[in-house]
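User: Predict the full complex structure for these chains.
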Amino acid sequence: MFGYAVRRVLMMVPTLLAISAIVFVIIQLPPGDYFTTYLNELQSRGESVDLNKIAFLKQQYGFDRPLYLQYVYWVGGLLQGDLGYSFEYELPVRTVVGDRLLLTFILSFTTIVFTWLVAFPIGVYTAVRQYSVGDYSLTFLGFIGLATPNFLLALVLQYLAHVWFGTSIGGLMDAQYIDQPWSWGKTGSVFAHIWIPVIVIGTSGTAGLIRRLRANLLDELRKQYVVTAHAKGMHPLKALLKYPLRMALNPFIADIGNLLPQVISGAAIVSVVLSLPTTGPMLLRALQSQDMYLAGSFLMFLAALTVIGTLLSDLALAALDPRIRFGGQAVS
Amino acid sequence: MMYHRYPLRSLIWDYLRAGAGFLIAAVPIAIGDPGMVFFVLLTTLALLFLGYGLRTLRQHLTAYEIRPDGIVSHGPFKRLQAWDAISGIHLRYYSTTRDKVRRDLKHGWLELKIASPAGKLRIDSEVQGFAMILDAVAKVAEERKIEVDETTAENLKAFRSAAVGTAAAGGND
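Assistant: Here is the predicted structure of the two-chain assembly.
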């Protein structure tokens, strides 16, 4: 297992390098650069522009270098934790980003935990009690969750939270904690606000997972070894937990890699609606203004999360089911 | 007297992996000034790859011998895993390809873990004569009625059928 883990970690390196090259090319694709956009904005407002200053800034930030050199400097900086400089905010990206990466991570992680905590028992129940009233009711609820647009659910929950609990509208914390160092009060405020975006982002994913777990578990429960176990008098709970549930979990775990980017990309729209201080809205703004190092850092963060998610799911799968498979099926 | 060693060809790849991983993690620490988070991350990675390199070195220096009384690993940590002391065997399959579907097992490897009260002996399928070692261990497990888990049983069955397929196709172990 150690050898496998090391090989998988090493495989992340070329993957992340390839992603960094693609990210760099994509953020360079729009014509011009940040300074050109900035120059156009100033000129459209009729403000005077010092072209020498622009030329000096371009030289200072290496925009006059060939593209491959700009890329090498950027990746070299990333490896040392230097995320670059945000031209729009005129601050290092690390300072601009501040808590946003952490808050995005907390939100995404909490959403995944919520999704699993809700989907897991419901998926098992609906499979074990197939076609019961409970199965139909929970399936119906799941479909409602899947069909409701996130932004609508966000608005409704915000309203209800304000009316019933007095929670302030929007944001991930009360106004007095914004841009303040972390404290117990700030942490408490984050947890008092986080449940709305968690429910909003998690609901659609939950319904999908319920359906998938239900289908997988139903397949397993119909296999002969489960029938034999029941016929031999094995306790129903043991006959469920010992093998069928473990086997049904495999696709569930394999999905971790996809879950992270899904949650984060879904969170971008919700973050705009709920005014969340996460990466989504700032990434949109950075892409619009061609603030390349800020946009690039965010995209690399999302890519790293995806790659790490895939690594975790592969490691979990290898630990859970290290079997040789022929033609996509376990040997039986 | 027959010794089973890891072939140099597979060890070289492992050395390269360890070296490349260590350099990627260690160079930014050495030449730059990474922040605390990156420092911890890169140091962990460097230690991981260093550990992998040491493990490869140990495999390089180790040879296994099947004897009537047990299996001996000669090398830096010499030990005898006596047949009558074996308490369990585990056979795990790992593959870095996404779907783990390979009939010839070339894109994955098996890890045989032989447990006894004295400790565990781990042998990768890359070792020369792995089929022979596995057969000997499986035979002992069968004779001593050692219960194996479902994964081990399935991997054993699959490995044997793959070995038969390879032999039928004119290949050799």
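Chain B touches chain A through 43 residues (CB under 8 Å).
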